[in-house]
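Re: weekly structure request thread

Next one in the queue (435 aa):
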Amino acid sequence: MLLLISLFSGCKEKQELSEQDFAIKWAEMTLFITKNTPSNSPTYSSRCLGYIGLTMYESIVNGDSTYQSLAAQLDGLDSLPKPQKDKKYDYKLALNAAQATILKSIYNQTSDQNKLKIDSLEKAIYENYSEKIEDKLLIDRSVSFGKAVANAVFEWSKIDGGHRGYLKNFDKKMVYPHKLGSWKPPLYGQSFSHYPLHPHWGENRTFLVQNHQIPDPTIIPYDTLPNSAYYKQFLAVYQQEKALTQAQKEAAIWWGDDPDETFTPPGHSYYLATLVIKKSKPSLIKCAETYAKVGMGVADAFINCWKWKYKFFTERPNTYITQHIDQRWESFWPDPPFPAFPSGHAIQAAATATILSSLYGEKFSFTDSSHVGRKRDELRNVDFKARHFESFWQLAEETANSRFYGGIHVPQDNQAGLEKGKVVAENIIQLKWKK
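Done, posted below.
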């Protein structure tokens, strides 16, 4: 919104947009819409970010001599619009039009007010940048091309199984598996619903065929004997909750990313990509590559995670500990409304960390200030304090550990998530991004 104010302020000299601004401003708008759209969820937002990031990349890739389109490399995406060979295009204008189009399409349920904000940003960037271009046919051609790319990506998105998934968050007809150690609706939970979130999300099409073929993680078999490996998983959570430090409590609430209050865990990953881009100032094509990889990474990570969550349908500590260790125990953080194994936070954080490490190096110092300024959590006596990291993987491990500190995941949930998130990311990295 500050960009809009500066562009229409009436100053003699309008704000000059940097190359990165064309990507960053749209990423920030994406996070605003993600946070402020009703009926959103981590699953649905991860899907949206995948298509939004891919659209950014595809809208400009034809303007770079070293990169190439991902059409025919992704599952079911046989082709995308191509620029006319004998015509010139301005791909920054194409990106601007494409992002506005895909954002309003993919987040169709957002408010009319939010759609006006999208329109305003598109207009501000268009007017600020296009006034320097004399060829009006080139301008129109570039805008039309960006919209065509976005519309093609959106049409492809409609058949992935998650289209308008916000209309079917909970399946009230679902029959729960009856087995020892199965998930049960929490008494102390984040949601009022006693039905699990998106039980069929794992059936959705992944962006990559390879990410649909990842082998299942290994799980420790159910047991109630105190010396068993399964019992020790929950005992570790119980003992940790009894010894939580203030720093661990701060980590637990920082990575909560409740979709009712924040831009969701996948949105947090998109935010981190923006943070890195602001610090590194890469070329526009690398900005788009970053958002495309992170977006598709969190999307495919969540599809796989949900597939395994509903295949194994495992309980959370609030169920097992109260039955077998301490009847009065409560987790530090409330249970989310879906099965435990593996951890969604861990798998998407690992995918993001692996991707960002491949693009910007394993050693990268940065500070996450995304929740600074949020109201203190009086119930848990914790403030939202910025988190500093020396590497992306350090962040991924803290994200996973935060769920352990919160008492809603046992160690094996996090370990499996971290391991499989790496696999998802490596498959994305190995696509033929360059010619």
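The longest strand covers residues 363-368. Residues 8-12 have pLDDT under 50 and may be disordered.
Next request, please.
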